[in-house]
Amino acid sequence: MRRPPQPPPPVREADRTFQSSTLNAKQLIENAHEIRVREHRLKTSLRLRTTEDIHRFIHDEGLVSFLGGNELPSFISAILGRTWKPSANGFTGWNDWWSVKISGQPVAQVSREVDDRNDILATRIFRRTKTFVSNRIWPVLDPVVKRHKELVQKGEILSVLEQQLLKTINGEGPISTDQLRKKLKLEAKENNSKFHRALTSLESYALIIGVEDPHPEKHLHANIWQTWETRTRGGIDRAGLSYEKALAKLLEKTIDACVLAREDQVGKWFQWSADMKEVAKELLLSEAILKAGPYLVSSRVRDVNN
């Protein structure tokens, strides 16, 4: 004789909570991907078409990676209307966008003009790659730069060469790459790698800012270098946040720009990422940022859900 069907076992409250959080995480991630496609302009219909579009895009996002291939919105991807990242093909891959025109100008020329703007600057703070920073982020970044200047003065960060470069750029005012090499007697080819590595390190701390030299003496794509203070003069209220609050605000704004990012990658973003571990915990506790599975997600994604 067939036994009557048995009722399913009751769902424990812990199981119900786990199922609910799993569904919520899945929904958050799906929503975040949709928002990322829209805000990062990863559809042809959404791509940036004018220089005004580009300036607005950078200011809206706050932080924009030039080439892309990382979590931030990408200048090149937004112009193409699809994801683009550097590949093993080297310069061959650049053919995808090199000939694109924005407001009648080549992308390279538009990028140089962005570098020269008073309200946007180019750094290498994010993953040591070229990153446009809107002036609305400068007050957040300023206390971080101040802290690193203090550490330089104490001799706690930077190599001897990096310290010499920073001291020279600080003392000489805006100075070209060629003149900088002359000052430090680093013109020989064997000094190329260490010289450029040192500049990149200083840029990754935002201690120096470079804009392309329109009339280089010897080297193509040479820069004019100046310190953070010189470049941002007049654009910041210097009586700003504490270092800890600045780190929290910078991380929050970076995740806002990324929309979502793998938590295990956040420690690779900035030179000072080690200082952000506790900050990230506090942001999660206050729900200024959210956690969804392996991802950290902008709190804006939750608001879309409601």
Describe this structure as you would to a colleague:
With 306 residues, the chain is α+β, with helices and mostly antiparallel strands. Among the domains are: 30-136, no CATH class; 137-240, Orthogonal Bundle (Arc Repressor Mutant, subunit A). It contains 13 helices and 11 strands. The protein has helices at residues 13-39, 51-61, 75-80, 95-98, 107-116, 138-153, 160-172, 177-183, 192-204, 228-232, 243-258, 277-285, 299-305, and strands at 63-65, 101-102, 105-106, 120-126, 129-134, 175-176, 208-212, 223-227, 260-262, 289-292, 295-298. Helix 6 packs across helix 11, helix 7 packs across helix 9 and helix 11 packs across helix 12. The longest helix has 27 residues, at 13-39. The model is unreliable at 11-21 (pLDDT under 50).
SSE layout and pairings?
Blueprint: H1 13-39, H2 51-61, E1 63-65, H3 75-80, H4 95-98, E2 101-102, E3 105-106, H5 107-116, E4 120-126, E5 129-134, H6 138-153, H7 160-172, E6 175-176, H8 177-183, H9 192-204, E7 208-212, E8 223-227, H10 228-232, H11 243-258, E9 260-262, H12 277-285, E10 289-292, E11 295-298, H13 299-305
Antiparallel strand pairs: 1-5, 2-3, 4-5, 6-8, 7-8, 9-11, 10-11
